[in-house]
TrEMBL record:
GO molecular function: endopeptidase activity
Organism this protein belongs to: Duganella guangzhouensis
Record-linked Pfam families: Rce1-like
UniProt domain CAAX prenyl protease 2/Lysostaphin resistance protein A-like: residue ranges: 112-203
Protein name from the UniProt record: CAAX prenyl protease-related protein
InterPro entries in alphabetical order: Prenyl_protease-related (IPR014346), Rce1/LyrA-like_dom (IPR003675)
Transmembrane segments: 12-30, 36-53, 69-87, 107-124, 145-165, 171-189, 196-218
GO biological process: CAAX-box protein maturation; proteolysis
Keyword vocabulary terms for this entry: Hydrolase, Membrane, Protease, Transmembrane, Transmembrane helix
Amino acid sequence: MPPHAWPRIAPFAAYMAFVVLADLLARAGWAAPSLLWLYPLKIAAVVVLLLCYRRHYAELAAGRPRWRELWLALAAGVLVLVLWLHLDADWMVMGTSPGYQPLEQGRLHWPLLLVRLAGGVLVVPLMEELFWRSFLLRWISAPDFLAQSPAAVTLRAFVVAALLFGVEHQLWLAGVVAGAVYSGLYMYSRNLWTPILAHAITNGGLGLWIIATGNWTYW
C-alpha cells in the first residue's frame, strides 16, 4: 500500500471502527441511549484525522466545480435520494437495524440530532469521497492512484468500487447505485468536490426526511 494512501484510509477506518465498537457494545447489553453518544465521538475522531492530514489532500485544491458540474451534482444528489427511499424491498436490504434515534424520553434530543445531521452533511461526504472515489476507485485501476486521472478509471474499478460501496450500507442496492453515480460524477468532472457536493445533498435531504417522518432506520 503506498504511503500516500493512508491519509485517505485512516479517517474512513476510524469511522468504521466506531461502527464495529457500537455493534459490540450493543451485543454486550449497553442501552441504546448510551450508544447514541458514540456518534459525536466518531465524527470528532474523523474531523481530527482529516485536519491532521489536510495537507495531503491535493485533490481538494482543484477549486469550485464549473456551473454545469454543480447542477449535475445537485441533480445527482436528488436522484440518489429518491432512489434511496424507494430501493428498500426486502431483498435489497442486508440485516436489520433500529437506526440512529436521537430521542430522550420520547422527545427529540436536539444536540444529538443536529450533530447527526451535520456529520452526515459536512463530514461523511468528505471522508467517504476521499476514501471511495479519490483513493479506492483510482487505486483499483492503478497502484499509483494519485497519478491516475479519474477520467481514465477502468470499468473493472468502477464496478468493484460501486459494489463495495453498496456492501457498506444496509440498503445495499441503493448503495451500489449511489456509488456508481458518485463515481460517474468524479470521472466526468475530474473534480472531487462534485461527488462530495452530490453526496452532501443526498445525506442532507435524507436527514431532513428522517426527522420529518421519524423513519430512524434510514439512519
